[in-house]
Amino acid sequence: MEHRPVADGQRVAGVYRRPVMLASGRNGMLDDAKGSSLVRWKPIEQRLGEQLAATVRGGGVSWEIGRQRGPALG
Asked: pLDDT of 23-74, one tens digit each?
């Protein structure tokens, strides 16, 4: 599976597969069946296997739960 880095301001979506510990800290792996992205982890352990989306902005992350359309709430 291809890893796709997430740029500042980018929104990524996929199924939350597992937490990943890196030297930079804890991340969550989102899998969209084409590849995976690592996003800075927040307390989302109970969401394992669910559809999530995340938008990265200046070192922070806004998480969205489920399949949502329109502007993100974060």
From this structure: 988 888 889 888 888 888 776 667 778 888 888 888 788 888 875 554 444 4
Q: What is the pTM of this model?
A: 0.64
Residue 59 Ramachandran class (φ > 0 left, ψ -120 to 50 alpha, else beta): left
Can you say how many angstroms the Cα of residue 12 is from the centroid of all Cα atoms in its chain? Answer: 6
Looking up tokens 């489920």 gives 66
Give the chain's domains with CATH numbers.
Answer: 2-58 (2.40.50.140)
Measured CA distances, 43 to 1, 21, 72 (Å): 25, 14, 18
State how far Cα 3 lies from the chain centre. Answer: 12
